[in-house]
Amino acid sequence: MNRLWLLSTLVIGSLIFTAVPLSAQTTGWSSPVQLSETGQFSWFPDIAADQSGQVHVVWASFITGYDAVMYTTSKNGLDWTRPTDILALPYTGAATRPIISFDFHGYAHLVGRNDNKMVYYRVPVHDLQALPRWPPERDMSQLGGAYFSGISVGPDGRLHFIFTENPLAEECLTCYSIFYRQSRDGGISWTSPIMLTPVGNGAIKPQILVSRNGDLHLVWDAGRGGGLAQVTGSTQVSYAASRDGGKTWSEPIEFSGSSAGYPGSSGRFITVGEDGGGKLVVVWLKLPDDVPHYQVSSDGGLNWSAPAPLPGVFGIWSVIESGLDTYSMATDSAGHIHLVMVGRLDRGTRLPSLLHLIWDGSSWSEPAVIFAPLDFTPVWPRIAIGLGNQLHVTWFTANNIFGTDAADADFRIWYARRSISAPAIQPVVYPASTPSPLPTATRPALQNVSTPPPVDPSPAEITFNAMKTEVDDYGLIVLSVAPIILLFFALLLYRRRR
Question: Would residue 297 count as lying in a domain?
Answer without folding.
Answer: yes
